[in-house]
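Submission sheet (multi-component)
Chains listed below:
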Amino acid sequence: MMETDTIAAISTPIGEGAIAIVRLSGKEAISITSEVFKGKDLQNVDSHTINYGKIIDRQTDEVADEVMVSVMRAPKTFTREDVVEINCHGGMVAVNRVLEILLSRGARLAEPGEFTKRAFLNGRIDLSQAEAVMDLIRAKTDKAMNVALKQMDGRLSALIRSLRQRLLETVAHVEVNIDYPEYDDVEEMSHDMMRESTKVVHAEIEELLTVAKQGKILREGLSTAIIGRPNVGKSSLMNTLVQENKAIVTEIPGTTRDIIEEYVNVRGVPLRLVDTAGIRETEDIVERIGVERSRQVLKDSDLILFVLNYNEELTEEDLKLFEAVRGLEYIVIINKMDLEQKLDLAKVDKISDGKPIVTTSMLKEEGVDTLEKAIADTFFSGDIDTGDLTYVSNVRHIQLLKKAKQALEDAMEGIELGMPLDIIQIDVTRTWEFLGEIIGDTASDSLIDQLFSQFCLGK
Amino acid sequence: MTYNAGNYDVIVVGAGHAGVEAATAAARMGAKTVMLTLNLDMIAFMPCNPSIGGPAKGIVVREIDALGGVMGKVIDKTYIQMRMLNTGKGPAVQALRAQADKALYSREMKNLIENEENLTIRQGMVEKLIVEDGVCKGVITETNAAYHAEAVVITTGTYMRSKVLMGDLEYESGPNNQRPSLKLSEHLEELGLELVRFKTGTPPRVNSHTIDYSKTEIQPGDEKTQGFSYETTAFITDQIPCWLTYTNEFTHKVINENLGLSAMYSGAKRGTGPRYCPSIEDKIVRFNDKPRHQIFLEPEGRDTEEVYVQGLSTSLPESIQHKMIKSIPGLENAEIMRPGYAIEYDAVVPTQLWPTLETKVISNLFTAGQINGTSGYEEAAGQGIMAGINAARKVFGQDAVILDRSQGYIGVLIDDLVTKGTNEPYRLLTSRAEYRLLLRHDNADLRLTELGYNIGLISEERYGRFIMKKQRVEEEKKRLNKIIIKPSETINQLLEEADAAPLKEAVKAYDLLKRPEINYDLIEQMIEVNEMLSDDVKDQVGIQIKYEGYIKKAKEQVERMLKMEDKKVPEDIDYDAISGLATEARQKLKKVRPLSLGQASRISGVNPADISILLVYIEHGQIAKVAN
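Outcome: structure written.
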């Protein structure tokens, strides 16, 4: 936290703009970048120069992106440390890949507001701004937490919880053997038992990382349902959202057309058009499964785009849909504004209890900007810079998974070497801690709680 | 009204395991010290288990010894049995445990402190402190004796407003029917200290003559002689075994049928008991599917027939205790000499203490031991020595001595207490230590002797021996790094006998020792023997080389931790003036008042963002100072 290591983060809002910048700061900023940079020798270029080249993934020798790299040496930089800025192609895939490569070479993912914090600590920012820096850290951290939580799929966190529980039980088992060597009610933990536990967890982590590599975790966004009666323009809405953001989605390598279409990134807000409550099934969801059931389905969505027809009066079905989404996060989209008005706007306003209402014409591509802004507003209150927040939490997850895997492999190596279990347990505990960081649970007291709930101990 | 009973540098109230360490440490550091106790016959008494040491706790005893304390020396003279635990596991978790001759331990300790220079011992019940302008200046006893001093250490254990509970019997009493201290805790509350109600318990003692040992399993001591203290040279070889038996369904039936009669289960609201030391009632209720529980029969000494029934701590009525005992194999005809009981008492909420164990509300007042919410003789003694050291140093105007979490279990214990507090009597467990590989039984001397010497508690002679050992370890490691072992028939024969893979190419002795199945003794058979080395040094060399990688990793973690510890929080910090701190964090910080960012980060409810903000604030102050 207050180390002088080299930090890196994406410093532009993801998904917006044609260019995304990865910024590094710290002693090794230049050397780390030059290790993965194909072009001029960055170690020897002049300060404050921009250099064209490619970022190479040294593990596969693949080109991650064509980039422009600015090299700025201390002290005349934002943080008063060596700073490198890598201009990547816009969109999240390339820039995330570049970031991951840098992290794998020893950079550490910056914490929210950390560049600003370093600038301050190195005396770059005026003292009077100390308060502002503190507020910034608080705001950014809180938002990063919120976004990270929102982004995390329920199944992912459930899986991580179950892996942690398994590790915790293993560790508690080792602990009980240590702290209560005479306690006879439990079989002494053996290397074989330890091997079994670590193997299972290791396989699960590898699976998660493979999935992450395919971009699935990266692309996990806010699960979003588009609902509305037939022919109100749901498909056009989806197509428009996808088209608007096409530059991003087509960059995902090796994914099928199906999956691509379900993912969009609107002004830094990643949306996942979810299958279960998504466009195909919701065609006539209420008719099909009733209000209560559809509420259940819709409840799993982070955001609902509820489409009405400007050209038709409110129907019984529309009202049922309103009932189904009450209390949930939704945006009302009144489509087909190019046609004659038959919808009672005052009534819609009244029953949508203060939720945003956007009028659009998908046909004429009008109102799309307003809609996108409404989506962004819903999740970022609109006025805060989305900065390095949205996807970083996902890169963070991957980093932590990798660390967890490494720690577990250290443990497995110890098992094969026949190291004592209490020593192997050190690495198992580290694995447990890394996994805990992913879901924001680092309470160290859990082990002791586990110990006393799992075993009957005492004098 | 009061009379002047004398002027001292340090007063220690209480003569239990914390008190004797505090008093001897202060006195040996040159402070004129007086120790006050309710009953001079109960010095360093063990009201519960006749046992010292065990995992984590045994390492604490070694640490106390390395700092120059007394617990290790006295138990080494008075044990009836000594065992090294966890020998099948790694070096980090091995620990000694001794069964003590309870009466002899107490007598030996009394004798030791009676002969201590600078230390006066008095019988007396302290009821009040003399406090002027928030500074503690002495104590007043019930006999109106006013003792004056620069610093006071309170180590009253479980005596404050204590109540003994057994069935529906309930009376004000300290452990073992000693007088309780009734007025002191009220007075501490008046002075602004927050107290909490805890409870613990003890099992019945039975007469050895009435036990049928043939129905139990013998638990002998180790054959190898060993001790806690680095100064012990003569070991007791005549050991007495313990015995193991089990409860059964009849025992459980007796307990279940009479659960409502147990003082702790009768429905009345009671203090919080420790999870790790549950009564037999707790065990039956919480783990009702367990068919049996272990019962260890531990002799209380050489000159007594009393046997401690470990595993049967209870607050059931005496009549039920008889039934319960008689249901256990080997104890069918056993006679209870003293019944078990639960005890409830006042403890000081330990987050009110600085890491020196000085209270925040009253300067120069220290508290140590079970009064701080811990349990166990070793935990008490570990706090006692630190409180004694810091009290004396404060009197002499010297800097405080605080052990960090990488220096010892004592550091872990005190940091946990003052930073996180505790909602049950706190017991040390190896899992509480993040750097347990560094906090080993075998290296307690390497960790703390230097400090003990600098404080003035380790003699020149012992320090010289320590330096010599340290040097020999380093030299031997260097030597092994230079010796090349080549594959040969003899060598591979030796390896084969040890179930180790044969050598294919030449290897450094150092690297060969890293293989898990190879120990120093085996290496010694392959190389020129260094006659200078003691077993102690050989063990150390073996451990340091074998676990080098893990030790290195742990040391790196420690370094990161220490960076945070080095960031000091200014004493006059005003948390209310720092915008951006979360409300919960602000409240906790105001209460705990951490000395460093490291300590702040361990407070539950203070998250990394709060630490960042705190850092910015602190650095801001420093930059501002420089700018001025």
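Remark: Chain A touches chain B through 49 residues (CB under 8 Å).
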